[in-house]
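I have been asked to look over a protein record a colleague put together. Alongside the sequence sits a line of tokens, each denoting a local backbone shape. Please read both lines and tell me whether the tokens look consistent with the sequence. I do not need a full report, just your reasoning and any doubts. I have pasted the whole thing underneath without changing anything.
>
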Amino acid sequence: MTIKVLGPGCMNCKTLYRRTEEALNELHLEATIEKVEAYQDIAAYGILKTPGLVIDEKVVVAGFVPPVEKLKEILLAHRSPQ
């Protein structure tokens, strides 16, 4: 699973990154997480408000920071079948 946190480095972006890491750890899921901070790269995903969360190139969150429990639901819904 490849996860991207989209945002210029604001507090909400950092919070989303931290909560995503926490959700992955609680679920014992392996993933690569990267920050995408360049505006042109963020715009390429079509989101108008940050932060954004992209899982395997699909935008799953835009414009808000979900709680860890909601992120866990999102991650489970997008994980690869084993």
User: Anything to note?
Assistant: Residues 64 and 71 are 12 Å apart (CA to CA). Residues 11-27 form the longest helix (17 residues). The chain has a mean pLDDT of 95.
